[in-house]
Design brief:
The protein has helices at residues 9-19, 34-51, 97-110, 141-144, 158-164, 179-193, 210-224, 233-247, 266-287, 292-304, and strands at residues 23-28, 57-61, 84-89, 119-127, 149-152. The protein is of the alpha/beta class and 309 residues long. The protein folds into two domains: 9-164, Rossmann fold (3-Layer(aba) Sandwich), CATH 3.40.50; 172-304, Helicase, Ruva Protein, domain 3. Strands 2-3-4-1-5 form a five-stranded parallel beta sheet, sandwiched between helices. The chain is globular and about 60 Å long. The two termini are 19 Å apart. The relative contact order is 0.16. Mean pLDDT is 86; it is low at 158-166.
């Protein structure tokens, strides 16, 4: 199983709309000014508006939170809009701690309706390929986990595919998930939490809500890609590769590595991590996946766990 690029924007958007889940949009940063961010914000908005025109879906760009134009997002009354609204948040990783706290409260308030929520959010994250960033997703954990999956910037055919396949209301709830498949997802979660390259002080970033999130994604993949009304382990593997890389907290330095307690030298661990992240930079550019190392960890776990027959 080879590591591939992040899932495409068109598919992730249709899944997010169907499941009422929030999405992270990663785009390649070409310059250091705000023009690049504004251009990509307009690309996302125009893609949504063109693809879902006349289907009761609208979009807006939230320039800077909080602003007077976005005050309706703060109150429960603002969540009772007649149409589904997609809120685009540019440069979400640049928000400070206090602003991220407000964002979490706002998103939680707007998503309180679950599958009937009238708003979903797209958080935009720039990927500066030349900066050798170890972690491009620099959001606080409690904000990062409000988002479902991550995708790469759309290509030219995304809007065409969305127009020809109006899969924005996929009946995924009718897809059956057996107890054996559910246990398989739990096994993956446990192994990810204890993986050698994750921050086990945070449980690897794997939250309890990951179980339901992965099952929903598996149902959507099963329904749309495989045309099945039941989930198989193969569907779960694809869902795990799409879902977990965004949420995994990787090992950052020797100070949080448990083997130091048993005699490992911190300087050698840091040196190893430097080489590992250098490899991550090189491979991420080749396959256009800024979450290459996180995806590699998921592949490693999936290769070790025996799926149910």
């Amino acid at each position: 199983m080879l590591v591939k690029a992040l899932p495409d924007f068109g598919t992730c958007l249709s899944y997010s709309i169907s499941a009422r889940r929030n999405l992270v949009y990663i785009y390649k940063k070409q310059s250091g000014n705000n023009i690049d961010t504004e251009r990509h914000s307009e690309i996302v908005k125009n893609t949504i508006d063109r693809s879902y025109e006349g289907r009761g879906i609208v979009s807006r760009i939230m320039e800077k939170y909080p602003s007077e134009e976005d005050q309706d997002l703060l109150s429960p009354a603002g969540n009772s809009v007649s149409k589904l609204e997609i809120v685009i948040i540019p440069n979400i990783c640049q928000y400070n701690k206090e602003e991220q706290v407000k964002l979490v409260k706002m998103i939680k308030n707007c998503n309180s309706g679950g599958s009937r929520s009238s708003r979903i959010f797209i958080g935009m994250v720039p990927w500066a390929m030349a900066d050798h960033e170890r972690h491009i997703i620099s959001m606080r954990d409690w904000l990062k986990h409000r988002f479902w999956i991550a995708c790469l910037e759309p290509n030219e055919t995304d809007s065409v595919n969305l127009r020809t396949e109006p899969s924005y209301d996929i009946p995924y709830t009718e897809v059956h998930c057996s107890p054996a498949v559910r246990r398989y997802v739990l096994d993956v979660m446990v192994h990810l939490r204890m993986h050698r390259f994750v921050d086990i002080t945070k449980g690897g970033g794997i939250q309890t809500m990951a179980l339901n999130d992965v099952i929903v994604l598996s149902q959507l993949i099963s329904k749309t890609t495989f045309k099945k009304n039941f989930i198989t382990p193969e569907h779960v593997k694809i869902a795990c590769i799409w879902y977990f890389p965004l949420h995994i907290d990787m090992l950052k330095d020797a100070s949080i590595d448990t083997t130091v307690q048993y005699g490992s030298r911190p300087d050698m661990i840091d040196d190893f991590l430097d080489k590992l992240y250098k490899l991550n930079d090189e491979e991420a550019k080749k396959i256009e996946n800024p979450l290459f190392l996180e995806t590699l960890v998921v592949h490693d776990v999936l290769n070790k766990i025996v799926p149910p027959v």
